[in-house]
Amino acid sequence: MDNGTIGNGSANTVLSEPDGPPQESLLFIVLRHRWTILITTLVALVAAFAYILKATPIYESESRLYVEQSGPRIINEYEGVMARSGNYLYTQGELLRSTPVIGPVVDDPKIARLRTFADVDNHVAFLRQNLTVNIGRKDDVITVSLESPYPVEAAQIVNELVRSYIAYHAERKRDTASEVLKILQKEKESRDKYLTDKLEEMIAFTEENGIVSFDDKGGNIVFEMLRTLSTELSQAEMAAMTAKTDFDAIMGIEDDPFKIKQFAAASTGSGVRMPVADREMQLRSELRQAETELKDILYLCTEEHPSVQAIKSKIDRINKELEEEAEDFAEAYVEVMRLRWVTAKQREDDVRASFESQYNDAKGFGVLAARYSLLQSELSRAERICEIVDNRIKELNVTAQDVESLRISILEVARAADRPSKPQKAKVMAMALALGLLMGGGLAFLRDWLDFRLRSSEEVSAILGIPVLGVVPKMGASKVLPMRGHKPSVPPVPIAAIDVPAGEATASSDLAPVAAQDAEQAATETRDAVEGDRRTPSELESVRWVQRMSKKAGRSARGTTVGGASWDKSKTPVASAAEKPDIVRRGQKVHLESKSVVAEAYRTIRTAVFFGAPKEGAKTILITSPAPGDGKSTLASNIAISMAQAGQKTLLIDADFRKPVQHKIFEVDDNKGVSSVLAGRDTIEQAIQPGVIDSLDVMACGPEVPNPSELLNSDVFTETLVKLTEQYDRVVVDSPPVGPVADAQILSTVCDITVLVLRAEKSTRRQAQHARDSLLSVGARLLGAVVNDVQQKRGQYGYYSSYGNYGYYGKREKKTG
């Protein structure tokens, strides 16, 4: 049978370094740190509740506007309607938040004296910060809202702001139309004078030459070309004049990018189209998002908070970029209008040159006819120009009248709110609950991530790469049960070799007949005693065990030898477990409380050791741990007792020279033991002392020595251990921890197998890995690990988490019927 042990150079098992600890279920982590999560969530809810109690109620008043996207009609041929773009409404939203609109509102003494502006130095900045302008996604409706602790004042401020916006909008439109009208009126005066001069010249020519009819019908190519060029020259002059007028208007508002942009949107009939910059739309979208973030964070932080300052800096940067975009657009538009005027002027000059050339050619056909035709064409051209200018002035006057009746409708007037809009109690508590759970979960996972303790048998197997032989539940305080007759009971000791693996039956065949005879006798005596004695079978069994030990001792105090050592009747465990010291009660758990869950756990580990390695290959068993306080000595004593109860002739050696405790557990003399044997002061027979049950002997540590490592590493110890293995079926060695000293490594080289004891919620991964590597580095045969001191309801270390709930081993079923 494969022994399943791990050792250097072992052909049976190759130790592979695991990739890492197993991923523990999130549910276990949450349950383990449930109080952390609960307290964090409770603190968040309490803080939210306190905020709700102390927060000032905020009321919101809003007004809704419908803004029709239209512009002034400039000429007849092209209706000057503003380009319908998404930027228009967003521009109006920015206008509502601009200083020219907010300024007149806060300058009003009635508004400035309101309680809303108490203790506020910059009223414009305060109003801009608390003002919200939302643009409808599927309509042209703009919603203007303001939050204030005073609902009536909030409604009053919003209404005044809407009135200021309408007044500002009307004024700006009126100014734009007036500037264009002035330019056209000036041009009209010049064209009227030119028309008058041409008319007078025509009259003078007629009077001077009489009424002469120049019939050019019939296709005179010279005169036809002259008339065509005259028409084209009129059109070129008109185009140049229009371009010059628009360019002069632009130059008049060169320092105001907003006016230029509005003029460009209104002058769609000029043929100049400027594309809408995607960058501007993106910046405005970022600006709205940043303002929303600023508004939200101001509910949680003060003005001086770094997060608030950062968002404000972002808003300033976006506004600056928008201004730069507007300036770039203005520069580009001015340059386009200049080029348009230059091109129109160039065409006018070219047509004029052609006209003059054709005019000179026409002189050869008749000076008078040509002069008459020239005067007539110039007069017609002047009349057409004057007519066009008059029509444009009339259209602009109509536009000015439209400005007076602005296309802005107030759909809803702001009214005082009945209920506060903030704080929203349900929302605040829900956010606090979510934030508390999130923070609590994060804190729980952080604590779990920083916790390097071993918490489960699966984790031990994954980290160390060795099997877990068993787990030992946490030992609590013993319950003292009242006994009949008020006599202390002695826990029963199994006589038959129970729980012995099948492979061990042959090796213990010499003890089987005796064990079977004792078991049969005990059963017979128990049946007889139950009928005539009122004591329980457990009490009778304990008494009969003492009687049998007394018979073997010849009724003398030290008349029996076990393994060469005499038996002291005074050390027979006749007292109850509750009367024993705690170290004795824990160390003799299997003996004193044999029906407890802990005792069953030790027997399970004993069975795992039996099956883990053949008897001849595991006669000497080393029990060690990574650090002090892991419970190795308790495990060693209980394992030794359980092996003795199974019929194995067992010797427990206390090789922990640094901190020996086995003499305290078994209450034996510590003046002789391993150190005295190795020093030659005592023989093996003299150093061995009887244990608490039959088949168990104890060799205490002995007197303190200055050089324990040298003694353990000597040939004398090896020879002594060999002799003891010839006398006993099992030799259990309790050694010091692996970490502090090298004694455990030395002992592991001379013992057949080694068992590593880990303490639940105490032993760390690094300690366990260091202990494993230290043992394997010297060639130790590591059978497996035992997890000690496990909480019975933690659900982390196998079936012992609920093992004690069934009461199988602690109570006997009552018979019914």
Give a description of the structure.
The protein is α/β, with parallel strands linked by helices. The chain folds into 3 domains: 26-55 and 423-454; 59-412, no CATH class; 460-476 and 489-803, P-loop containing nucleotide triphosphate hydrolases (Rossmann fold). The chain has 27 helices and 14 strands. The protein has an 8-stranded mixed beta sheet, sandwiched between helices. A hairpin with a 5-residue loop joins strand 10 (688-690) and strand 11 (696-699). Helix 4 (99-107) crosses helix 7. The chain is elongated and about 165 Å long. Residues 8-23, 72-84, 478-575 and 794-817 have low confidence and may be disordered.
Indicate the topology.
Elements: H1 26-32, H2 34-54, E1 59-67, H3 86-96, H4 99-107, H5 109-112, H6 123-130, E2 131-135, E3 141-148, H7 151-209, H8 221-252, H9 257-266, H10 278-297, H11 306-363, H12 367-404, E4 408-412, H13 425-450, H14 457-464, E5 468-473, H15 512-532, H16 537-552, E6 560-562, E7 565-567, H17 582-587, H18 589-592, H19 597-612, E8 620-624, H20 632-645, E9 650-654, H21 662-665, H22 674-678, H23 684-687, E10 688-690, E11 696-699, H24 708-712, H25 715-727, E12 730-734, H26 743-750, E13 753-759, H27 765-777, E14 782-790
Parallel strand pairs: 5-14, 8-12, 8-13, 9-11, 9-12, 13-14
Antiparallel strand pairs: 1-3, 1-4, 2-3, 6-7, 10-11
